Amino acid sequence: MARRKKHKQSLGSIQAVAKPPQNLTKMRIDARSLAAGGNVAAALELMASIVRMQEQPPARDYAQCTLYAWNLGRYRESRNYCEESLQKHGKTEQALNGLMLSCLKLRDYSSVLAAGQGLLELVGHADSVYAIMAYASVGVRDFEGAQRYGELSLTLKDAAAPAVPPQEFPRRKSFDPGKKARNIISFSLFGQAGRYLRGAVRNALLVHDLYPAWTCRFYLDASVPEDVTELLRELRAQIVVMPRPSSSFEGLGWRFQVWDDQDVDFCLIRDCDSVLSLFETHAVNAWLRSERWFHVMRAGYAHSDLILAGLWGGATGMLNDLYAGYVQSLTRSATAGADQGYLRKQVWPVVKQNALVHDRVHRLPGAEAFPNAEFWPGDGWHIGMNEAAGSPDKQDLLLQEYCKRCPSLGRARRVWHFSVGTLRS
């Protein structure tokens, strides 16, 4: 009898907890405040308790849990919240989007494609969804699907780009290989991540053989270890020291300042972790012979943005205030793809009017095949590839002497990076 009574009391306490309190709205506000203050783990714990308190939690509560778990890198947890939301509320845009991006991080590409297809059925054509599905298609070795989805993404992005009046392009200045200080390969560098520090050194070394008519320039701040900065100077790279950024992702746009430099005639915009290659120089030289003002490269199945922020360039004189415009475009919701979004909306409408576009995968009007692409290395290699992820052992071997002199270079680590999609509140 006593045991039965105890059980009844326990059940009553559970029912009391299960009954939603009156202050759920305040708890949700508190969770958002915690997240805004940087304590995302506490925000997730609070939102998870809100979900447990309700017999039928609304979809928006699941969406917040998904967001916080995803931002913490707890992708299995974020996927679980999406799946539970779908079970209780059916297909919603937030749940399918969260599921797609969570599975992407988990490399469950079949589930990415299934969630993406469901999302397209719900919202219609969406360039960002097609871009993610192109990437996932490569993961399941469906290269025809990757090409198809990439072309759909690019076509939609081009159609959505703002219309601008036709520009009058004067005859482009001639490229002078004897003035290498006026021909700049521009990089942004900040932080202490090995993939970027080591990539910067690799590029500063390679430029002398692959681009003898060009000079590397690194826009960097005090977050870059001093021994790396000094090594880059020793390798005859130009160094432009920047103040600490005032907003997130501002540093991505530092390299755009080269467009307004009166002492520069030609510039290439590159990523530090994407190491220069001989095959890239073939494409750049083809562009220089073309007399077009700008050059755009898309070399991989996942290259479904109109301008990849680290694979383009041009002659100076037709683009002005690029960096200032980029900084002005940044908002609190900016993501790691902010630079490509800016280029798509503000720069592509001008660039596409007088550009040589090399695209290895997508058959779009005006694009040309890469020269000598049939001789590219196999195993998924492409121009713009992250060497620290694709060939870490090779990078270790090539940099071992420099790592002894420059401890901040550390050792390469196998990493995976993807930034085409993101979750937002």
Domain count: the total is: 2
**In CATH terms, what is the architecture of the largest domain?**
Alpha-Beta Complex
- Our estimate of the beta-strand percent is 5-15%
Q: What is the count of β-strands?
A: 8
Q: Shape, please?
A: globular
User: Helix and strand succession?
Assistant: HHHHHHHHHEHEHEEHEEHHEEHH
Radius of gyration: 25 Å
CATH topology of the largest domain: Spore Coat Polysaccharide Biosynthesis Protein SpsA, Chain A
Number of helices, counting only DSSP H or I runs of 4 residues or more? 16
Oligomeric form of this entry? Answer: single chain
Strand line-up of the largest beta sheet: 3-2-1-4-6-5-7-8
Could you tell me the mean pLDDT? 90
Distance between the termini: 51 Å
SSE class: alpha/beta
Largest sheet, strands/sense/barrel: 8 strands, mixed
- The share of residues in helices is 40-55%
Low-confidence stretches: 1-19, 412-421
Question: Can you identify the CATH class of the largest domain?
Answer: Alpha Beta
Secondary structure elements and their pairing?
Elements: H1 2-18, H2 24-36, H3 40-52, H4 59-71, H5 75-89, H6 93-105, H7 109-123, H8 127-139, H9 143-160, E1 183-189, H10 194-210, E2 215-220, H11 226-234, E3 238-241, E4 266-270, H12 278-290, E5 294-298, E6 311-315, H13 322-329, H14 338-351, E7 355-359, E8 367-368, H15 387-390, H16 392-405
Parallel strand pairs: 1-2, 1-4, 2-3, 5-7, 7-8
Antiparallel strand pairs: 4-6, 5-6
Helix pairs in contact: 2-3, 3-4, 4-5, 4-6, 5-6, 6-7, 7-8, 8-9
What do these coordinates show?
The chain is α/β, with parallel strands linked by helices and 425 residues long. The chain folds into 2 domains: 19-124, Tetratricopeptide repeat domain (Serine Threonine Protein Phosphatase 5, Tetratricopeptide repeat, Alpha Horseshoe), CATH 1.25.40.10; 180-409, Spore Coat Polysaccharide Biosynthesis Protein SpsA, Chain A (Alpha-Beta Complex). Helices cover 49% and strands 9% of the residues. The protein contains 16 helices and 8 strands. The chain has helices at 2-18, 24-36, 40-52, 59-71, 75-89, 93-105, 109-123, 127-139, 143-160, 194-210, 226-234, 278-290, 322-329, 338-351, 387-390, 392-405; strands at residues 183-189, 215-220, 238-241, 266-270, 294-298, 311-315, 355-359, 367-368. The protein has an 8-stranded mixed sheet, covered by helices on one side. The longest helix has 18 residues, at 143-160. The radius of gyration is 25 Å and the shape is globular. 40% of the residues are buried. The model is unreliable at 1-19 and 412-421 (pLDDT under 50).
